[in-house]
Please model this.
Amino acid sequence: MARLHVMERSEAQAVMDGLHEALGKRLAVSSLAPCPVEFTAAYVAMCATQSCGKCTPCRVGLRTLQDLLDDVLENRADEHTLDLIERTARTIYLSADCAIGYEAGEMALTAIRGFRDDFEHHIKMHACGFTQSQLVPCVSGCPAGVDIPGYISLVEEGRYTDAVRLIRKDNPLPAVCGLICEHPCEMHCRRGMVDDPMNIRGLKRYAVEHMESDYTPRKAKATGKRVACHRRRSCRPLRMRTTSRSWVIRPRSSSSASSWVACSAMASRAIVFLARISDREIQWLLRLRLSRSIRRRASMRTFGRLREDYDAVYMAIGAHSDHKLGLPGEDNPGVMSAVDMLRSIGDDEYPDFTGKRVCVIGGGNVAMDVARSAVRCHAKSVTIIYRRRIEDMTAQDEEIVGAQAEGCEILQLCAPVSIDVCDDGSVGGVRVQRQIIGGLKKGRPAPRNAEAEETLVPGEVVIVAIGQAIDSAPFDEQGVPTKWGRIVTDTDGAIPGFDGVFSGGDCQTGPSTVIRAINAGKVAAANIDRYLGYDHKITLDVELPPVQFRGKVSCARCEMTVRRSDERTKDFKNIEIGLSDQEAHQEASRCLRCDHFGFGAFRGGRIEQW
Model:
């Protein structure tokens, strides 16, 4: 009889692994608006099945908690039940022996306290109390509300111009978003339950690049009303003769505007390449002749006159300043901001880092942008300094991997202490303090100083990429409400106390992404139109292909590939290679058409106008 046996993966374990994987996919693409009571009950039930049975709080407590939650869902509960749920969850959290019990107790406790009104609605009305979305998951996940299943079906049928027309109903910059969008829609794609989420961004890019012809959208009859858009001070405000809910951009020059779109983009999409793409889209908008420039320099004095001279004002000043480190030596000429560097590159003005070691401070997408741009500006080496771990970086994984593939070194758990200055006044590097990671703070593990000596990271150039700031102080002085430097608005974008003045974008939300700025513009267009006394509609004017159900055949996702790292680092061209014809049509055919089948049909499928 053998003392030990080689561990083998049994058939039962294989089945359980499959169940775990399926559960993970379901959680990853869960609905944007699940009932918190049902969700909590399902979570507690799953945790109860994991209990080893050793401790009473877990073995008995979780089953008791599960029964109490079932009472709420089955209309057997009252207000006393809710108090009992809270006490039971708290007892489990405080007394369970291991994480299986106390984590389940903590989550249930958080749910009953955070969604008390939903639990009460179940007791009083015997139904869910939350407002269910009228859209399918991918559309709900898109800040601009683009009809994603609709344009994917048009791509599959080969009607690319119609696909772009449908996208532009809600998003005026499909070419830009096809390159740089963070694609939050893909996170909720139900295809992910089957195999992989749809490559929505890739299909958007394919549609734009394969348009059969250009077109001019229909314009409504002019109303004579005037709306001023107040941009950052280096761009002119504009006057728009409102004819409909129109998307309008009128910068100092189109290259200036496109460089600002580009400088907010990820480096892997190529800053200069993106500037040219965005310039073409801006020129398309300008050809609609909905606006004209009224002043070279925007100022607070201009803002005051705009309120008097125009029927409505939209403030979209962005977040074009940079945050400072507040460290000794930061005012040295060898220290530059990421905002200034990316703005220059977007305007075709490239810094020369030949033979220089570059230190980049930060851990977001912008930090990856400038690091990868520095490589293309012939830096001898590029070191990214970050005070947390790599896995805690806010940059997207593909950006981090791309930066490393291009030769950028990432020093994690290193907090900058000062900028080292040489005797001749030049930058010598960044002095850092090693960190040790700790507990969660605002959703991320917080670092603290480790018991280690400070060290010097050598470099002749330091680029600070720790975020963008909003130049809201002049507006604050005139009574415009602000909080943490952001302009405060109501949910419709209107600024309280300033009749007819609206705001949106980075200056209202804080630095964010292009697609979220588009959402702000869409909200402003609709609500300014309503404020002016109109109710213009942007309608669906594209006939969609008939829906066909093709079954549940598994097919993996087609990804866009990238150019080799040793090739792409030599220029600022786009590093991504778009989908081929075969890949695009196969990818489009994977769509489950949630706008038609299942819950999509029940909820109305699509929004045909706004």
Summary: Confidence is low (pLDDT under 50) at residues 233-253, 255-269, 294-299. The longest helix spans residues 11-28.
